[in-house]
Amino acid sequence: MPLLIWAGVLVIGAFVAHWGADKLSAPLKKVRRQWGLTSVAGGALVGIAAAGSEIGINTISAYRGVSDIGLGMMLGSNIVSVPLIVTTAYFVSRTESLGGGNGENEDSGSNGSTGQSNRLEAGHEQHRQENLLRIGRDAVHVLTVPYLGILALVAILTVPEPVRGLQPLDGVVMGAAYLVYLGQAFMRGRSSPEDVKWKRKEIGLTIAGLVALAAGAYTTVRATEKIVAGLGITRLIGGLFITAIVTALPEIFATRSVVKSGQVTAGTTSVIGDNAVTMTVAFLPLAVVTVPIDNFQLYWVNLTFVAIVAAMFGLLIHVGSVGEHGFERWQVLALDGVYLLYLIVIAFWVL
C-alpha cells in the first residue's frame, strides 16, 4: 500500500483507539464521583482511560516485537501532549462560552443553583478579560510533583549503564509507583461522595470501547511499521514523531469538550494524569518483553524533555497573576516554545 494510504490508516486507527478509550472514561468518572474525589484527584483515575490508547499501542508493539515504536510513542506523546492540551484549553476558554463555571470553582461542590452559576460565569468573564486560563492550585502538588517523581524513578531504572533499558523488574516497580501515585491523589483530593446509578447501556459501551481500543491500537502499530519501513527511518523515530503526534491529536477534541462544559481544571490537568499512566502502566508491557536502548543520546534527551515540559507546566501555573493560579497568554506561548526547542535540539544535535 502507498505511504499516503498507510498514513490515513494510522490516523483512523488512532481515532478508533481514542474512541474506545473515551468509552472507558464515563464509568471511571462515575467511580470518581462515587468515591468522592475532586476533579484534580479524579484526573489521576480518569487518566487510565485517557491513556488507554497508549497502553494498547505499547501492548501491541510489545506483542509484535516492535517495542521501539511503543517506547518512542511513550516518550514523544508525553512531550507533545502538555503544550498541545494547554494551548487547546486556553484557546477554547478564550473563544467559547463555558457551560458551568471555571477551573477555580470546579471542586467547590457546586449544586448548580442559579446564583452560584451566575458567580461562576462572572468569574470566568473576569479571567477571560485577564487572558488567564484559571487552574485549580491542587494541580501542582496532587498531580505534577508526584509525576516528576515518577520520571525520576524511570531515569534511575533505565539510564545507568548497568541497568540501561526496560526490563521486567522495572515494569513491576513502575506498576507499584502508579498505585502509590493513585493513592496519594485519592488521599489528598477528597470531597463528598455522590450516589450514582449504573445503566446496562453504559456497560455495553464499555465493552465496545475495549474492542475498539484493541482494534485501533493494532491498526496504529501496523501502520507505523509500514510507514517507517517506507521512509527508511528507525522505529524509535517513527514512534517519537509519527505515532506520538497522531495519537495526541484526538485529545484536542476531548479537551475542547471537557473545557467547554466548564471543567477547565479537569480538562487541562488530566494530561498529567494521562502521562503518569503512560510512564507507569503503559511502561509495563514494554518492560515485560525487555527493550534495550540502542540510541542512548536520543533516549536521555527525550526523557529530559519529558521532565522539562512537566516541570514547566507546574512552574508556570504558579507564575500567573497575583493570587491566581493558571496560564496567561505568554505562559502558554512559553510552553509551546519548549516543544519548539525540543524539535530544534533533536533535529540539529541528536539526529
TrEMBL record:
It is a multi-pass membrane protein. The chain crosses the membrane at residues 6-24, 36-57, 69-92, 139-159, 165-182, 203-221, 227-250, 271-293, 299-320, 332-350. It is found in: Membrane. Residues 7-183, 203-346 form the Sodium/calcium exchanger membrane region domain. InterPro entries: NaCa_Exmemb, NCX_ion-bd_dom_sf. The keyword Transmembrane helix applies. It comes from the Archaea. GO terms for biological process: transmembrane transport. Keywords: Membrane, Transmembrane, Transmembrane helix. GO terms for cellular component: membrane. Pfam families: Na_Ca_ex. Residues 99-125 are annotated as: Disordered. Its main location: membrane. This is Sodium/calcium exchanger membrane region domain-containing protein. It comes from Natrinema salsiterrestre. The lineage of its organism: Archaea, Methanobacteriati, Methanobacteriota, Stenosarchaea group, Halobacteria.
